[in-house]
Amino acid sequence: MYDLSGHFVTGSVVGNEGRIAEGHKLTRLQSQGTRKNMPFEVNAGAEQNSSNFLKPVDVSWLPAASQTYKISDDISDYVLVDIPAVTVCKAGMPNKNYQAFTTDEVLTYDPMMGMQIYKTFVGKGCHFEHNNKDPEKAKGVIFGSVLIPIPGYKYPMYKISILAGWDRTKDPELVKAIVNHERTGYSMGSIVKAFVCSITGAVVAPDTGRYRRGEEVKLSNGKRKLCYHLCTGSYFFEISSVAQPADVTAHGFNLGFLSPNR
Questions:
Q1: What does the pLDDT look like over 123-162, one tens digit per residue?
Q2: Fewer beta carbons under 10 A from the terminal one: N or C of the chain?
Q3: Does 1 reside within a domain?
Q4: Residue 81's beta-bridge partner residues?
């Protein structure tokens, strides 16, 4: 029997190098006409418009999901936010919780989920401040997830960028705050089977191990290395609108909607 229990992890995290599964560069749209022809139509006020989701996004499952989450079954009721939810890099750069995923981890194909780990965001709920225990309290649902490269760094760095839909009929005030950029921070939720210490390579419990998370350890060669936990056996199950994200880069400014005929 497949066990879905594990440790609850919040915040966006990073890890070691791997293959690029999907890639779409961020570009600036030049005209309103261009925006109207895109499956993901970006609002005119965005500082940097997104082309992460140029491919058609499947929303055929929304009516079924709407019954579970108690959200609208009409795609036109949703404000879409392109969220850089999880950071992945070769060098390792954990979040403020000192936890990290490796790229190999998010690219792993899970036979029970029927997809790679980074795609497990799709179909999961959108919540407010990780109030995620009751599915019926969801404020929306996630429609897409891609892995994109981030240029300009010494070592390869990537983002899991998700397309989160926030239901205007479920929580109008929250969506208004998102649209007005009063709430721009986001934090993912993940279930993790086990943690691996970045220093020793040993499997550790969340608050145990030879070294503490966040501790700088002096190695035998005299160099110092940060202790953090690598997340393994994981899957993503939510995204939350939060006031203070654990990953300082997990802010969503690109807003839009999906055309009903897409």
A1: 999 999 999 999 999 999 999 999 888 877 777 788 899 9
A2: N
A3: no
A4: 164, 255
The tokens of 117 are what?
Answer: 């780990």
Confirm whether pTM is higher than 0.85: no
What residues are paired with 232 via a beta bridge? 194
Give the type of residue at 220: S
Q: Does 2 fall in a domain?
A: no
Which candidate, 2, 12, 4, 7, places its Cα nearest to that of 245? 12
Give tens-digit pLDDT for 168-213: 999 999 999 999 999 999 999 999 898 889 888 899 887 777 888 8
> Is residue 84 assigned to a domain?
yes
- Domain count of the fold of the chain: 1
Which residues form the domain of 55? 7-258
Question: What's the CA angle centered on 156, arms 194 and 26, to 5 degrees?
Answer: 105
